[in-house]
C-alpha cells in the first residue's frame, strides 16, 4: 500500500489475528476500554461489523478473504495516519497478506490471539463450529479451511491459559515498553493541565 500522505503517522494498528473463538473481539473490547483511559482516539475494526457493512458481497474463498483483509488494512491506515489507535479483530487466516500489511503499514503490531482449536470449538461462542462439523457451513477456518499462524508475532496472547485481563495487560505492557503510549500520557496530562488551568482562579 503506497502512502503519499503528508500526515505524520502517529497512531498504532493493533492487528489481532486468530481462530474464531480465540478471543479477538473480547480482547479488543477490553483493550479499547483501557486505551480510552489514555485519552487518545481509539477505533475498533471488528470482523463481524466489517463483513456486515464493508464487505457484504465477499465470501470465504482465499481471494475474498484476502480482499477483506486488504480493505481493513486500507481503512486502518487512514485512521492510523490521523493519530488513531486502531484495533483490528479479524481472523485474517493467511500469512502472506498479513505480512504484506505488516511490511507496508506504519506502526503495525501483530497480535496472535492463540488458543487450540479444541478450546475454540468447546467455547463455540457463535455456534459456528457445530454448524461447520455438521456440514451446514463450508470453508470454516480451522475445520475445512486453513489458518496460518503468525511465525513471528509481536505479541502472543495464549487465551486458553490467560484471563482476558492478563492478555490485555500483556498488550498494554508491550505497547508501553515499545514507547507507543508516551504520546497518550502527554496528551492526557496536557488535557488535565488545561482542565486545571481552566478551573483555577
Ligand atoms: N484470555 C482470554 N482472552 C479472550 N477471550 C477469552 C479469554 N479467556 C477466555 N475467553 C473467552 O473466549 C471467548 C472468545 O470469543 P470471541 O468472540 O472474543 O472470539 P473471536 O476471536 O472474536 O471469534 P470470531 O473470529 O468468531 O469473531 C469468549 O467467550 C471469552 O470470554
Ligand atoms: Mg470476533
Q: What this model shows, in words?
A:
This protein is of the alpha/beta class. It has one domain (12-192): Rossmann fold (3-Layer(aba) Sandwich), CATH 3.40.50. Helix content is 47%, strand content 13%. It is built from 8 helices and 5 strands. The protein has a 5-stranded parallel beta sheet with strand order 2-3-1-4-5, sandwiched between helices. The N and C termini lie far apart (51 Å). The model is unreliable at 1-6 and 185-201 (pLDDT under 50). The structure holds adenosine-5'-triphosphate and magnesium ion (MG). Magnesium ion binds at residues 24-25, 46-48, 89.
Helices and strands in order, then pairings?
Layout lengths: L11 E6 L6 H13 L5 E5 H7 L8 H19 L4 E5 L5 H10 L3 E7 L2 H7 L4 H6 L21 E4 L5 H14 L4 H18 L2
Parallel strand pairs: 1-3, 1-4, 2-3, 4-5
This protein binds adenosine-5'-triphosphate and magnesium ion.
